[in-house]
Protein backbone atom coordinates (compact mmCIF):
# COMPACT_ATOMS: atom_id res chain seq x y z
CA UNK A 1 0.00 0.00 0.00
CA UNK A 2 1.34 3.38 -0.97
CA UNK A 3 1.28 6.08 1.59
CA UNK A 4 0.23 9.47 0.32
CA UNK A 5 1.79 12.59 1.72
CA UNK A 6 0.51 16.07 1.28
CA UNK A 7 3.04 18.67 0.33
CA UNK A 8 2.82 21.79 2.40
CA UNK A 9 2.43 24.86 0.26
CA UNK A 10 5.23 27.41 0.77
CA UNK A 11 2.75 29.96 2.08
CA UNK A 12 1.69 27.54 4.82
CA UNK A 13 5.15 26.69 6.12
CA UNK A 14 5.92 28.26 9.44
CA UNK A 15 9.26 29.21 10.90
CA UNK A 16 9.80 30.09 14.52
CA UNK A 17 11.79 33.30 14.63
CA UNK A 18 10.72 34.46 18.06
CA UNK A 19 13.72 34.66 20.30
CA UNK A 20 16.41 34.75 17.63
CA UNK A 21 19.34 36.88 18.72
CA UNK A 22 22.32 38.12 16.80
CA UNK A 23 25.53 40.06 17.06
CA UNK A 24 27.44 41.87 14.32
CA UNK A 25 31.21 42.20 14.39
CA UNK A 26 33.49 44.35 12.30
CA UNK A 27 37.15 45.20 12.37
CA UNK A 28 37.97 47.57 15.24
CA UNK A 29 40.65 49.50 13.37
CA UNK A 30 41.15 51.02 9.96
CA UNK A 31 37.74 52.72 9.91
CA UNK A 32 35.81 49.55 10.83
CA UNK A 33 37.24 47.76 7.79
CA UNK A 34 39.40 44.72 7.96
CA UNK A 35 42.94 44.95 6.70
CA UNK A 36 43.19 44.99 2.93
CA UNK A 37 44.97 41.73 2.31
CA UNK A 38 44.87 39.00 -0.23
CA UNK A 39 46.29 36.39 2.11
CA UNK A 40 44.82 33.11 3.34
CA UNK A 41 41.60 33.26 5.37
CA UNK A 42 43.60 32.49 8.51
CA UNK A 43 45.14 35.98 8.28
CA UNK A 44 41.81 37.83 7.96
CA UNK A 45 40.11 38.49 11.35
CA UNK A 46 36.58 38.24 9.89
CA UNK A 47 37.20 35.06 7.90
CA UNK A 48 39.19 33.44 10.71
CA UNK A 49 36.33 34.12 13.15
CA UNK A 50 33.84 32.80 10.58
CA UNK A 51 35.81 29.55 10.28
CA UNK A 52 35.96 29.23 14.08
CA UNK A 53 32.19 29.82 14.33
CA UNK A 54 31.53 27.04 11.83
CA UNK A 55 33.83 24.71 13.77
CA UNK A 56 31.86 25.58 16.94
CA UNK A 57 28.54 24.81 15.14
CA UNK A 58 27.36 28.41 15.37
CA UNK A 59 24.99 29.84 12.80
CA UNK A 60 26.91 32.67 11.16
CA UNK A 61 27.47 34.57 7.95
CA UNK A 62 30.05 37.03 6.74
CA UNK A 63 29.34 39.66 4.13
CA UNK A 64 30.98 42.56 2.44
CA UNK A 65 29.95 45.91 3.82
CA UNK A 66 28.95 48.83 1.61
CA UNK A 67 32.41 50.37 1.98
CA UNK A 68 34.99 48.93 -0.41
CA UNK A 69 37.09 46.10 1.05
CA UNK A 70 35.05 46.00 4.28
CA UNK A 71 33.56 42.85 5.76
CA UNK A 72 31.37 42.06 8.75
CA UNK A 73 30.52 38.89 10.63
CA UNK A 74 27.00 38.11 11.89
CA UNK A 75 26.37 35.40 14.49
CA UNK A 76 22.87 34.11 15.27
CA UNK A 77 21.57 32.00 18.16
CA UNK A 78 18.48 31.09 20.14
CA UNK A 79 18.29 31.08 23.92
CA UNK A 80 21.42 31.79 25.94
CA UNK A 81 24.26 33.65 24.29
CA UNK A 82 27.04 31.27 23.24
CA UNK A 83 30.50 31.52 24.76
CA UNK A 84 32.52 33.25 22.06
CA UNK A 85 35.84 33.33 23.93
CA UNK A 86 38.46 31.91 21.61
CA UNK A 87 36.06 32.07 18.66
CA UNK A 88 35.98 35.77 17.83
CA UNK A 89 39.28 37.37 16.82
CA UNK A 90 40.50 39.91 19.40
CA UNK A 91 40.55 42.75 16.82
CA UNK A 92 36.80 42.49 16.11
CA UNK A 93 34.19 44.62 17.85
UniProtKB/TrEMBL annotation:
Main location: nucleus
Compartments in which it is found: Nucleus
Membrane-spanning intervals of the chain: none
Alphabetical UniProt keywords: Nucleus, Repressor, Transcription, Transcription regulation
Cellular component terms (Gene Ontology): nucleus
Similarity-based family: Belongs to the Mediator complex subunit 13 family.
Name by which UniProt lists this protein: MED13L isoform 5
